[in-house]
Amino acid sequence: MLDTPARLLRLLSLLQARPEWSSTELADELEVTRRTVRRDVDRLREIGYPINSSRGSSGGYRLGSGGGLPPLLLDEDEAVAIALGLQRSASTRVTGLEEAGASAQTKLRELLPPRVRGRLDSMQLATEHSRHAPPEVPAALLTSLAETCHRHERLRFDYRSHDGAASRREIEPHRLVFLDGRWYLLGRDLDRDDWRSFRVDRLEPRTPTGPRFTPTPLSDSDARELVTRGVTEALSTIRARVRFALPADRVAARANAYRQRVDADGPDACVLHCGGDSVETLAWWLGSFDADFTVLDPPELREQCRVLERRYRSAGTDPCSPDEEEDHA
């Protein structure tokens, strides 16, 4: 049987592991009587842990939320996961939490056993971060936008687009999405009556927030797809529609890596909505699919495909023509 201090730590660990325990379950786990469980719960309450109880034949206990943050009991893998998360948080470019993050990392590292500390040090030394630093975003702005999304309140803000154009927007905010080192706010633009995504580092909220609204159902995957599509379209100077003589899933397997949209057009064909920085690069990329395709639009892309057709036909001719073979005979 564990001594009292060790048993209290074990009891606290159990209460943190799941939402609720019956007194019988806790007694079995600790190998003590239910009466001892009640006494141990009272001891934890005396030192500040908010433990709620429910009445009944077996009773039940739940670790509540208190005014302070109680110590957490972590196993080695949980400690490593938190430490790696703190290291990774630096790449999210959220400002205002630098000192808190560094302090938490230091405290956690000092408490870790040497073998676990060595795992973290090895990970840090062997990891190279991108030298490209995305724009910083204040933590206070992110939490404010998250609360507005959660409360389903309209948001008005001033916005600066990628080309520097300024505008004033009013949206029904739905999600914050972190994509490629940048934070985006996804919402329904009321003036355009459509989904739009906005770089958080380019917006400045206006107060107060607007009236509440009934949110449009939207899954997390839908939110990521909408933001990804919006970013791709914003960065593409050329947009195109191309019909492939292939099932949609086969084209999507490759197109999704480049954030392009694929719509099924029957069981054996599909339409690819794609973009690029020029018709030359887009035509070359389409040819790499090794499948028949038809450019629906724009006309400039069709013409560039004809240019490539003539170039490849010329490259595929036999360098020694029949006339030249007779001359060499």
Automatic annotation (TrEMBL):
Assigned keywords, A-Z: DNA-binding, Transcription, Transcription regulation
Domain of life: Bacteria
Domain HTH deoR-type: 4-59
Coiled coil start-end: none
UniProt cross-references to InterPro entries, sorted A to Z: CBASS_pafABC_assoc_protein, DeoR_HTH, HTH_11, Tscrpt_reg_HTH_DeoR_CS, WCX_dom, WH-like_DNA-bd_sf, WH_DNA-bd_sf, WYL_dom
A single MF term (Gene Ontology): DNA-binding transcription factor activity
Pfam families in UniProt: HTH_11, WCX, WYL
Protein name: Putative DNA-binding transcriptional regulator YafY
